[in-house]
Amino acid sequence: MSKAQEEELVSILGEHPEGCTDNLLKQKMKLNKDKLVGLINKLLSAGKIDLKTQGSILIYQLKAASSSSASTKGMGQEEKIVFKIIEESGNKGIWVKEIRFKSNLQLTQLNKVLKVLEGKKSIKSVRPVNDSKKKVYMLYDTQPDSSLTGGAWYSESDFEAEFVDILGRQTLTYLQRQRSHAEVTHSDPMAAQRNMMVDIKQVKNFISQLGISKVELEEDEVRQILESLVFDGFVCRTYTLGEGGKRMTYYRAIKHQPLTSGVSRVPCGVCPLTSQCTPGGLVSPTSCKYIKEWLEF
Fold this sequence. Notes:
Blueprint: H1 3-15, H2 22-29, H3 33-45, E1 49-54, E2 57-62, H4 77-88, H5 96-103, H6 107-119, E3 123-126, E4 136-139, H7 146-149, E5 154-155, E6 158-159, H8 161-185, H9 189-196, H10 200-210, H11 219-232, E7 235-241, E8 247-253, H12 289-296
Antiparallel strand pairs: 1-2, 3-4, 5-6, 7-8
Helix pairs in contact: 4-6, 8-9, 8-11, 10-11
């Protein structure tokens, strides 16, 4: 393998930014399979080209000048293939079955590669809260999507019912204070109503200032808290039109609060997997231990 052949391969890949298949490179380079594979492996090891997959087809691409080769430095070809497949899955991860299909590796060999990559801390496995018997793989430094971890409401796959309850009560107290302040400072009922309304960002900032959450809540998680209070009859949701006709959502405490009951503790109101919950499914009301605990309460 000469320097000229390396330069020729790099030049061909440069002319095809979308990438080249093995067959296309064979036609362009006019090399036999063994020599072409050796040349490709050399450039992969040097970090000059990248690998990706389209179904079961391998695609070779010239690595962008700004790309860092540190993450795949020292990896063999199979490790690089698996690494790239996992990298493309992002923060939602990918099942072993999908990796096997895309990489064309035998299960035994794939398991060895995964074990090596985990040992190097290049990748990690995550068990989804809705199916703890399975696991998905993602890059080691990637923060898993909340659909896998359950977000702030889960700790090591356990639903934090007490934490959710505290956040709900603190949020309700905040909205009640906003209402009281608006009623005292504004004699006009309409003005008072406008000033007692708060949006999700305001509630998010309030919870952040409390310092009772170890992680910063996402706006969607704050919305779940507010919607559970709406469901229980403690809070009213209001819509207004903002700039450009954009619909804005606000919340305010209801003056006459309903009697507290067990309904206010129903886990479904804040469960991040509600949309996936169906009878007989992986997430099911008939097998949910949190529903069972709530009913017993």
